[in-house]
Design goal:
This is U6 small nuclear RNA (adenine-(43)-N(6))-methyltransferase. It comes from Podospora comata. Pfam families: Methyltransf_10 (PF05971). Keywords: Methyltransferase, Transferase. With 468 residues, the protein is an alpha/beta fold. Helix content is 37%, strand content 18%. The strands form two sheets. The protein has a seven-stranded mixed β-sheet with strand order 3-2-1-4-5-7-6, sandwiched between helices. The N and C termini lie far apart (65 Å). It binds S-adenosyl-L-homocysteine (SAH). The site of S-adenosyl-L-homocysteine has 22 residues, from helix 7, strand 2 and helix 10.
Amino acid sequence: MSSKKRKVLDDLEQPGRRSQVAPASQQSLNVAASDDAHFRHLYDRELDFKQLAEKDVDFAAVLQENGHLDFTEPKAVMQLTKTLLSLDFNLKLELPDDRLCPPVPNRHNYILWLKGLVDTSSYEPPGRPACGLDIGTGASCIYPLLGTTQRPSWRFVATDIDEKSLQYARRNVALNHLEDRITVLGRQPEDTLIPLRGRESEKVIHIDFTMMNPPFYESEDDMLSSAQSKVRPPHSACTGAPVEMVCEGGEIAHISRMLEESLVLKEEVQWYTSMLGKASSVETLVDKLKANGIDNYAITEFIQGNKTRRWALGWSFGPMRPAEHVARVKTSGWKKVSPPVLAIEVLSLHPGRSIDHAITRINEVMRSLELLSWNWDTDARKGTGRTRENVWSRASRRKKMRDQSTSFSVLSSAAPRSDPVQCRLGFDVAVEMGVSTTTVTVHWREGHDAVMFESLAGFLQGKLKNLG
Ligand code: SAH
């Protein structure tokens, strides 16, 4: 590939200044909320190159006298990646000159989103053990390195089809002493993307989520025209070999392969996810999900500065739903492709109104229903309920009254229930205190029935309305 072509591979944007907080390696390995907050906000602001240069002599050596970094200079770009990995994650990296040099903030964004996806789609506390599959890990093996650093209970299987990248990926895993938590697996182009079937599937026991940064482009021309259509000129020297950037059918074909495999594996993997380089691909793929009856999915947008945008899409066949902020894009224009609403505000308390009163009322209402379970967490000001059916509709409550009046005969003549109790809807009711107002919000946690979720929120809204 010509150097000109290489220069258009501008998926490198480096916003955000390094946080003042100590590197992860100096913090405890528990998933404390403070750790997560540290990582979440690492690249919120512009990078401060001068500060980086003060902390790392190798970075100082590539920084220009005027304090700028030459993004067309591969050496400088590579050093920035190494410096950020070292200072922010205590990770070491070795890369060849002719493979993709991953921009850390973008790759970190994907990991942050996955943490939210895995954490919120479970009743377990944040940080549950999980095994991720990174399809096409590249020479850097960057996702497994970032993921295992932030989540002590995560493991990874990392695959690639490119021998040189595999060699470097293994070296980077060893450099960071992560061999017991990251397995690097060579694949053939015709193998399944998810190695739970077919060749060498015996080496992979379980996968909770997949991730992929697919070759975005259908051809080198496609890649060039995409770069030229950008308002700003490409200004990075993010080098990539053709195997990394181009594949037949581009990202849609690659992600469609994952979708086909997921239709066979279904709930064997909780989340199937991929990064996307084109907004139009998100729409196409969401249509494909819907055509296959998949209603539980999540979309996010990674904004890096005001230049490059990337998206990620995840889908699940399981009933556990991710949080609203993880699954739905806030920026305009995304309503049509976004999954159904996952959080509905049912009460806004005026300042001065008693929160205790609202909490008592929520608990009274929930306990009056025949739910499978209802548990109130006093510290978190949040309750979790599960139900096998709509038990709040008028018809359902009338039936309950009738049953109660004949309970003796029902009890004495009823055969023991043999059918397993199915949960149709799981939800949280949370009292959330903002700066000026306090709200009560119902969050959809489990199930596939959006109408039932909305009906519950409507019912609760009615029951709480005189508290506002
Ligand atoms: N994950 C890295 C590299 C992404 S480039 C990063 O984000 O920086 C895409 C990678 O996918 C390349 O390393 C390429 O070799 C690999 N790849 C392409 N087809 C593949 C396949 N069928 N199975 C596994 N990896 C594949």
